[in-house]
Amino acid sequence: MTTHFIVSIDVEEDNQWRRSEDYSLHNIDCLPKFQELCEKYGIRPSYLITYSVARNNNSANIIKTLAQTSKCEIGAHLHPWFTPPYQSPFLRAAYPHTYPYECPDSLLYKKISNLTNVIQKQIGVEPKSFRAGRYGMDGRAIGYIRKKGYLIDSSVTPYWSWVDTLGTTLGGPDYSNITEHPYYVGRTTFPNPTNTLEGSILEIPITIKKNSIDEVIWLRPFPWADETSLLTIIRNSLQKKELVLNLMFHSSELYVGGSPYSETKDAVMKIERKLKAIFKFVTELEIKSSTFQEFFEQENEKIKKNQLTI
Question: Taking the model in full, what pTM does it have?
Answer without folding.
Answer: 0.97
